Amino acid sequence: MSVISRLAGGLIVSCQAPVGSPLRQPAVMAAMACAAELAGAVGIRAEGAADIAAIKNACALPVIGIRKRQVPGTDVRITPTLADALPLLDAGADLVALDASDRPRPGDERVADLIAALAARGVPVMADVGDHRCGVAAAGAGAALVATTLAPSPDPSDPDAPDVGLVRRLAEGGIDAPIVAEGRYATPEAVAAAFAAGAYAIVVGTAITDTLALARRLCAATPAVIGSRAGRA
After folding, report:
1. How far, in Å, CA of 229 to CA of 90, rounded?
2. What is the model's pLDDT at position 57?
3. How far apart are CA 152 and CA 131, in angstroms?
4. Residue 67: which H helix or E strand, with range?
């Protein structure tokens, strides 16, 4: 069974922790991946070679690898260059995800060239996009999967709403690549809606693995915090 077919109809859990989180350790990310595997997830998305290697050593699921870094002069942060992708392969990533928007990249590398270079090494690419046009371009360049990772919320009044509409437009738009729903999927209802819209698989991250973000959000609404803020006013 191919790596892509193993993801069909399932949940991919993004096991990542932000800078400053005590969870930002390869062993912790590996434990999260094992928990996701036990729960029935079909794949893991992970950041950085150290985390990927630890997860591959502990978990049998396919791993989608990324490298996040801020590069001066560009807004592209998800696997900006081929040099960022190659250590992920050495660590055992089964796929590589990259920003497939049309924003300028470091060294003027092109999305199509990155996809081709990774395909030549036998590694499928998940193209992270934010709109239909870039999804079409990425699929045309040979991306094995097109994901809605970069799509903003479609509802200005609800910044946490996932863009199920973009999933539908991509799935119905004649794109020759499966569509992965990613970005603010946090409830069973949202997951079901994305599959109904034509998603091949769904990535969930913060809602499962970012304990720091979730705890901050919930703690901010507790009476103790609200009361302390009132006392400082």
Report:
1. 49
2. 98
3. 9
4. none
Bridge partner list, 100: none
Grouped pLDDT means (10 residues each) for the chain, 233 residues: 96 94 96 97 98 98 97 96 98 98 94 98 98 97 98 96 98 93 96 98 93 86 63 53
What are the pLDDT digits (tens) for 52-86? 999 999 999 999 999 999 999 999 999 999 999 99
Q: Can you name the residues that pair with 12 across neighbouring β-strands? A: 43, 203
Q: Of 178, 189, 177, 183, nearest to 203 (Cα)?
A: 183
- The beta-strand segments (E) located in the chain are 11-15, 43-47, 63-66, 95-99, 125-128, 145-147, 179-182, 201-204
- What's the chain's length in residues? 233
Q: Of 56, 37, 45, 42, give the one whose Cα is nearest residue 15.
A: 45
Q: Residue 112 in 3-state DSSP?
A: helix
